[in-house]
Write a structure and sequence with these properties.
about 160 residues, mainly alpha, about 0% strand, elongated
Length: about 160
C-alpha cells in the first residue's frame, strides 16, 4: 500500500548517499545545521554504526575544530581514536564543547584586538596633541612683554 502513495524508495537511498558524501560544515556557525543534517542522513542508512561515518563526521568539520577535537581525543586514547567505541552522542558532545572553547577564544582575541586598537588610537591622539602644542609654541611668535615703568610725579 505504501508503494501506491510513496513509490519506490530506492532512488531516495541513492540520493541520501550522495547528499551525505557531499555534506560539509564550512564555518563554526553552521555546526548545528551540519550536525542535524548529518545525523538525519546517516541514521537512514543500514550501516550507520560503522566507524567510518563517525570519522567522516569529524573530517567534514572546519579545520580548526576538526584538528582540536582529533588532538584532544587522541590524547585521551593515546594516539588512536577508537571510533567503534564512541557513540554519536559522545562525539557530538565533545565536539560542541571544543567548538565553544574555540568561539570563546576567538571572541576574547577580538575583544583584545579592539581594546588594543582603542588604546593605540588614544595614544596616537595624545601624541598628536602634544606635537601640535609643541609646533604652535615654537612657530608662533611670542609677543614681547611690556614692561611697565612707574613714573612718579615726585621727580
Amino acid at each position: 500500500m505504501n508503494n501506491n502513495f510513496i513509490g519506490d524508495l530506492s532512488h531516495l537511498k541513492d540520493r541520501n548517499s550522495e547528499l551525505l558524501s557531499n555534506l560539509k560544515c564550512k564555518k563554526l556557525t553552521y555546526f548545528k545545521w551540519y550536525k542535524d543534517i548529518f545525523m538525519t542522513r546517516v541514521m537512514q542508512r543500514l550501516d550507520n554504526q560503522q566507524p567510518f561515518w563517525k570519522e567522516k563526521f569529524l573530517a567534514r568539520l572546519p579545520t580548526l575544530l576538526r584538528d582540536k577535537v582529533r588532538n584532544q581525543k587522541g590524547e585521551t586514547y593515546k594516539g588512536i581514536i577508537p571510533y567503534e567505541n564512541l557513540t554519536y552522542g559522545e562525539l557530538i558532545s565533545f565536539t560542541q564543547k571544543e567548538g565553544l572553547k574555540i568561539c570563546q577564544d576567538l571572541k576574547l582575541q577580538k575583544q583584545l584586538k579592539k581594546k588594543n586598537s582603542i588604546i593605540m588610537q588614544k595614544n596616537w591622539d595624545l601624541f598628536a596633541n602634544i606635537l601640535m602644542y609643541l609646533l604652535f609654541r615654537t612657530l608662533l611668535p611670542t609677543k614681547p612683554k611690556k614692561s611697565f615703568k612707574y613714573f612718579s610725579s615726585f621727580h
